[in-house]
Specification:
With 122 residues, the chain is an all-beta fold. It contains no helices and 11 strands. The strands form 2 sheets. Strands 2, 4, 5, 6, 9, 10 and 11 form a 7-stranded mixed β-sheet that branches. It has a 4-stranded antiparallel β-sheet with strand order 1-3-8-7, with no helix packed on it. It starts with a strand and ends with a strand.
Length: 122
Amino acid sequence: QVQLVESGGGLVQPGMSLRLSCEASGGTFSDYTVAWFRQAPGTARSFVAALNFRGVVSYVDFAKGRFTISRDNSKNTVYLQMDGLKPEDTAAYFCAADRKSSPTRTRDFTYWGQGTQVTVSP
């Protein structure tokens, strides 16, 4: 059983940056694909980025060039660096993990964190 705990959310102004962290416990972190999703009020949870156990990354279009996913297996932690934040990036951000090699759908992931809120407002 893998437990995931996100941190790093907050209130920022447009154009600023945030780095989200997600620390895992209870499994061999390097065996898992890790990912970030987000969910704004009244919308479905949607894929942002993933990084698999081979180091292959994937991003949704809006994240390309602004967001960067990375991992530190020695710290059992995955990060999401978000630059150039926009008001439409406001959402709860969730990390997820699974043993599949290239998951991008919510139903592909077995383990989820509780989420961290990101609010982008002037």
